[in-house]
Amino acid sequence: MKKLYSALMTAFNEDGSINEAGTREMIRYNIDVNKVDGLYVGGSTGENFLLSPEQKKQVFKIAIDEAKSDVDLIAQVGSLDLNESKFLAKFVTDLGYPKISAVTPFYYKYTFEEIKDYYNEILKGVDNKLLIYSIPALTGVGLSIEQFAELFENPKIIGIKYTNADFYLLERVRNKFPDKLILSGFDEMLLPALALNVDGCIGSTYNLNAPRVRAEMDAFDAGDIDKARELQKVSNDAITALIQNDIYPSLKLVFEEMGVHAGFTKAPMAKPTDEMRADAKKIYQDYFKK
Ligand SMILES: CC(=O)N[C@@H]([C@@H](O)[C@H](O)[C@H](O)CO)[C@@H](O)CC(=O)C(=O)O
């Protein structure tokens, strides 16, 4: 059965500190209402790259304390500072996270040898399994099939969080590595990714939209492609509206409409304007009101 993971959001107070109660509410909502299979903690959606190391530790602690072993947990530990990534990999492993993930190193232009060393260093001395977080649109780092093969020489690297619209590469990767865990990262492209036999998905919009997405995955598994396509269409209407209204603050505003206290985004992300609030209310009414 294909797995559905929400990319966990972090609730912030207006001053950028972490709102623990709100973050816990979102975790509970994902587990109790969305019935997700897992949570991706410390990813882009969690605004992780805006956090101090102490705040990252705080989020990792809150998530596992709230979720316990109710769902699978993947901790994204990649950062600009390799020492920090290594520290966090050990930290989350000691907390009990069953899987970790690390974004490809970004900002500077690294050689593939440097990228490989980065992953091997993170995993050195850490008894855990890792998913490569590949998101070329944000990092500028695209990996080839040969490079994935070289990274997979480390047996602790078990798969890819594949946030990439290159479906040719996805097909090549899926078929070359049938035993690796491949989780699709673009919510609006889930259906074509399912057709290429990914093992599941991780995404931001699943925080709000998981039940519709589960229905789509079930329809796909049952061979009802028309129904899966119709559900993807509705999801994509919602995703388009969320993106047009600035996706990260909008996800939180819609969560607030649902009664879940998702808090603020962290600067320099935008604080919501009255217009954004009004649009988020409409998105809630159009797509998520029960
Ligand atoms: C850049 C970004 O936020 N990508 C999202 C998608 O879920 C994305 O928001 C969605 O497909 C809308 O474009 C996920 O791939 C990110 C993710 O899972 C994470 O790291 O939090």
Automatic annotation (TrEMBL):
The keyword Secreted does not apply. GO terms for biological process: carbohydrate metabolic process; N-acetylneuraminate catabolic process. Aceneuramate binds at residues 44-45, 163, 185, 187-188, 204. Keywords: Carbohydrate metabolism, Cytoplasm, Lyase, Schiff base. Pathway: Amino-sugar metabolism; N-acetylneuraminate degradation; D-fructose 6-phosphate from N-acetylneuraminate: step 1/5. The active site is at 133 (proton donor), 133 (proton donor/acceptor), 161 (schiff-base intermediate with substrate). Its EC number is 4.1.3.3. InterPro entries: Aldolase_TIM, DapA-like, NanA, Schiff_base-form_aldolases_AS, Schiff_base-form_aldolases_CS. It catalyses: aceneuramate = aldehydo-N-acetyl-D-mannosamine + pyruvate. PROSITE patterns: DHDPS_1, DHDPS_2. It is found in: Cytoplasm. It is an enzyme of class 4 (lyase). Signal peptide: none annotated. GO terms for cellular component: cytosol. It comes from the Bacteria. Pyruvate binds at residues 45, 202. One of its GO terms (molecular function) is N-acetylneuraminate lyase activity. Catalyzes the reversible aldol cleavage of N-acetylneuraminic acid (sialic acid; Neu5Ac) to form pyruvate and N-acetylmannosamine (ManNAc) via a Schiff base intermediate. Homotetramer. Belongs to the DapA family. NanA subfamily. HAMAP family: N_acetylneuram_lyase. This is N-acetylneuraminate lyase. It comes from Companilactobacillus versmoldensis DSM 14857 = KCTC 3814. The gene is nanA.
